[in-house]
Amino acid sequence: MHQGEELKRIRKKRRIKMQVIADAIGIKPNSLHYLEATETLQYETLKKYCKVLNIPITHFHSDIKDEEEHLKESSNSYETVTHVGKRISELRKQKRFNVSDFAAALGYRNRQSVYSMEKRAEVDFEIIKKVSEILDVSLEDILGKKLLNTLSIQPQEEEEDKDLYEKDKKIMSLQEKIIELQDEVNRLNKLLNLRK
Questions:
Q1: Cβ atoms within 10 Å of 84's Cβ, excluding its own
Q2: What is the pLDDT of residue 89?
Q3: Which stretches are annotated as coiled coil (predicted)?
């Protein structure tokens, strides 16, 4: 069996984007083209790819007796995260990041943007990657099986992803402007009260 082609077939069948696989196994997307064209992959690489696709290594190596180990890992390793924002909030608190410092690390101008993100069940993948780096946790720690399942169940074309990312950035920017305007209104109200 041509391992690279089989992995590519499964990835496409599940509609998982190359970027998601590349990020999860720690390679560049253009390296994934090479892997998927390779007939026999190195065992460790194959094992990582299988883990991301949530298939047992025995799919390729029937002589390996780790099917039980795979099932145990896939059912116990990570809980399924249904609300990404809440999970980010939990991890932020575990890592003892206060909201102001976390907002600054993410490049936000205020805390409200963090609160807004933590209220969302779905968060843009680029932001999740940034959170992963800041909190020094894996993507699986944030997403659990969601990385493997939800992203592949709801595939989007690259242009749509960029569009969503841009919309998310605009929303965050507008929220920051609203907060600034609210601060200005409060300041002006205080000035008016002083004049009375």
A1: 24
A2: 92
A3: 164-191
Whole-number Cα distances in Å, 10 to 73, 99, 133: 20, 40, 29
Per the document, the length of the chain is 196
What does the angle CA 21 – CA 23 – CA 27 come to, to the nearest 5 degrees?
90
Q: Tell which residue, 140, 123, 125, has the closest CA to residue 52.
A: 140
Domain over 3-76 is classified CATH 2.30.30.700: no
Give CATH for domain 84-189: 1.10.260.40
- Fold agreement between 3-76 and 84-189: yes
Q: What is the pLDDT of residues 102-142, one digit of tens each?
A: 999 998 888 888 988 888 877 777 888 889 889 988 877 88
**Distance (Å, whole) CA 152 – CA 11:** 9
Q: Is the pTM of this model over 0.70?
A: no
